[in-house]
């Protein structure tokens, strides 16, 4: 019998449209953590309310001064660790991490700087280029700037991708095939963010690479090939099954080694910790990075749990490893 079990709050939800996915991810983690070691609780963070879910799904407000909760019997419950599984803001872009740092609350995953950096696609790729990690040719625009369509098309060629700089789940991304579609595509992206990226089209296999630090070592959990039935790996493909995911990807040993080496280098160069999933396009055997997710989807259908199963790490061990690292911070 373990004396003095640690209390773990699985913190899910978020302020963006991705909260629906986060609740599924949170449920898997809640179900998977070892009850012999931990008392596990659910906390939901939404724009309008932060609450603890008690018995019979009764809601108790979270005290934002110290992230505690006052129960019916007047007792205060504080958490030894927050297991952060919010996708998008405020859990994947550094906001919650900075708040938890300020109040002295331990949490899983990377710290606020890594979260903020990796949530910004442009800055991530700029930093990683210094470590020799290639990415697509791109142009960066802020809301209100003039958009010179001819100049953009002559520099990047068609087709091209227009993406919000800071949005997860492929929301606001458009593949532009005709010059006439470019302005409308920028308007869609600007709905998600005031900064956007216009990227040249990389014609190759898309792979999603799970990297974690497990028991003190950076490991590649798996390389999953994404075969979208849609034009690209969009929200529908990611979460509604409109893509085929093949683990391991159908690539030769040499390419596999190259992808693993680059994915690990990216993870270590950014000083990452915890779960991560980065997306690459393989062209002529070279992985070009698209983005890095520090709180990737973790529902049973998501790529990271699939990779863990394939690698041979149980979800219980994967999640327990995160909690133990947070406790030892």
TrEMBL record:
**Which residues belong to the signal peptide in this entry?**
none
Could you tell me one molecular function GO term of this UniProt entry?
A: ATP binding
Q: Top EC class per UniProt?
A: ligase
* Cofactor info, note text: Binds 2 magnesium or manganese ions per subunit.
| Pathways per UniProt | Cell wall biogenesis; peptidoglycan biosynthesis
Q: Where does Mg(2+) 2 bind?
A: 291, 293
Q: Identify one Pfam family in the record.
A: Dala_Dala_lig_N
Q: Name one GO cellular component term.
A: cytoplasm
Which transformation does this protein catalyse, written as a reaction? 2 D-alanine + ATP = D-alanyl-D-alanine + ADP + phosphate + H(+)
| Organism of derivation | Chryseobacterium rhizoplanae
| Sites where the protein binds Mg(2+) 1 | 291
Q: What is the lineage of its organism?
A: Bacteria, Pseudomonadati, Bacteroidota, Flavobacteriia, Flavobacteriales
Instruction: Enumerate the cofactors the protein uses.
Output: Mg(2+); Mn(2+)
Locations listed in the record: Cytoplasm
Give the matching InterPro entries: ATP-grasp, ATP_grasp_subdomain_1, D-Ala_lig_Van_CS, D_ala_D_ala, Dala_Dala_lig_C, Dala_Dala_lig_N, PreATP-grasp_dom_sf
* Documented EC number(s): 6.3.2.4
Q: Where is the active site?
A: 18, 169, 302
Query: Keywords assigned by UniProt?
Result: ATP-binding, Cell shape, Cell wall biogenesis/degradation, Cytoplasm, Ligase, Magnesium, Manganese, Metal-binding, Nucleotide-binding, Peptidoglycan synthesis
The record's similarity note reads: Belongs to the D-alanine--D-alanine ligase family.
Q: What does this protein do?
A: Cell wall formation.
Question: Residues in domain ATP-grasp?
Answer: 125-324
- Identification of the protein by name: D-alanine--D-alanine ligase
Concerning Gene3D superfamilies, the annotation shows: 3.40.50.20, ATP-grasp fold, A domain, ATP-grasp fold, B domain
A biological process term (GO) from this entry: regulation of cell shape
């Amino acid at each position: 019998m373990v004396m003095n079990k640690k209390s773990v709050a699985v913190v899910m939800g978020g302020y963006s449209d991705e909260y629906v996915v986060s609740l599924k991810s949170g449920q898997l983690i809640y179900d998977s953590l070892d009850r012999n070691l931990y008392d596990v609780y659910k906390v939901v963070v939404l724009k309008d309310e932060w609450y603890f879910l008690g018995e019979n799904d009764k809601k108790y407000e979270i005290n934002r001064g110290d992230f505690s909760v006052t129960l019916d019997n007047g007792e205060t419950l504080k958490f030894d660790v927050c297991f952060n599984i919010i996708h998008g803001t405020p859990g994947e872009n550094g906001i919650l991490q900075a708040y938890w740092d300020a109040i002295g609350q331990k949490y899983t995953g990377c710290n606020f700087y890594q979260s903020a950096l990796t949530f910004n696609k442009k800055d991530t790729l700029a930093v990683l280029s210094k470590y020799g990690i290639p990415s697509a040719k791109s142009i960066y625009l802020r809301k209100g700037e003039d958009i010179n369509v001819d100049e953009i098309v002559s520099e990047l060629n068609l087709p091209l991708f227009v993406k919000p700089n800071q949005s997860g789940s492929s929301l606001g991304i458009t593949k532009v095939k005709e010059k006439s579609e470019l302005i409308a595509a920028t308007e869609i992206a600007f709905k998600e963010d005031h900064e956007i990226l216009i990227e040249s089209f990389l014609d190759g296999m898309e792979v999603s690479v799970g990297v974690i630090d497990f028991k003190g070592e950076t490991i590649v959990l798996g390389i999953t090939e994404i075969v979208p039935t849609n034009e690209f790996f969009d929200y529908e493909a990611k979460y509604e099954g409109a893509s085929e995911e093949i683990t391991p990807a159908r690539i030769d040993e040499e390419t596999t080694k190259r992808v693993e080496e680059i994915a690990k280098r990216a993870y270590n160069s950014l000083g990452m910790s915890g779960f991560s999933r980065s997306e690459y396009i393989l062209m002529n055997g070279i992985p070009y990075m698209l983005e890095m997710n520090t709180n990737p989807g973790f529902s049973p259908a998501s790529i990271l749990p699939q990779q863990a199963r394939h690698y041979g790490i149980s979800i219980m061990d994967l999640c327990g490893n995160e909690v133990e690292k947070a406790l030892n911070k």
